[in-house]
Amino acid sequence: MKYSRELKTAFKISIPVMMGYTVLGFAFGLLLVSFGYDWYFAPLMSLFIYAGALQFVAINFFNVKAGLIDIAIASWFVNLRQSFYGLSLLKRFKKTGKLKPYLIFALTDETYALLTTIKDDVQLKKRWYYFFLCALNQSYWFVGSTFGAILGANIKFDTAGLEFSLTALFVVLCIEQYKNLKNRGPFIIGAVTSIFAFLLVPTDKMLITAIVLSLILLFIFKRKVENE
């Protein structure tokens, strides 16, 4: 194979993501069919949407028959973080040619973490290495969600609490970020705005309110946060 070195390296580096995405994807597939949807919606969503947190949120949107505007706004806010950290990859993706649109589409938190924390091998053809890394990560999620949906459609599972699986992953990632950064400012702001929205804002507007307030406070206290 022409790019076997890039593929092998990408696979080796993506193994930790494989362990997480197959399990979380499986949970998503199970949860989706438990709400009465056909199994094939899981692979279709994982192929064309591929946004772990948003896919879990989308199940609830479909279940309560939320409007398109509400779904669009919530989706934008849920994935807004990718716009910010994606900017740091513009230079890296500059010479990726026709592969660039897919690399942008397939960028996730975990893929970004791999791209920015693991030193690139100078002998690798970068654009194909990036492509294989993104494609492999998506394939793990795709396979996990498909298998979970098919199994869930044929075997009855108790899915109580399963929707919390991705939240649990984000909690773990948040704790790891806290340990590495040692900066309490953003965490305190996020906690305060979340509690405020939880107590005083209707459930369907809680997430958007918390995110908007967090962004406003982060801009207000930007200098202090950066100094810390």
From TrEMBL:
TM ranges: 13-33, 40-62, 128-153, 185-201
Swiss-Prot/TrEMBL GO biological process terms: L-valine transmembrane transport
Domain of life assignment: Bacteria
InterPro entries, per the entry: Brnchd-chn_aa_trnsp_permease
Membrane topology: Multi-pass membrane protein
Keyword Hydrolase: no
One cellular-component annotation, GO: plasma membrane
Location of this chain's protein in the cell: Cell membrane
Keywords: Cell membrane, Membrane, Transmembrane, Transmembrane helix, Transport
Similarity section: Belongs to the AzlC family.
Name under which the protein is recorded: Branched-chain amino acid transporter AzlC
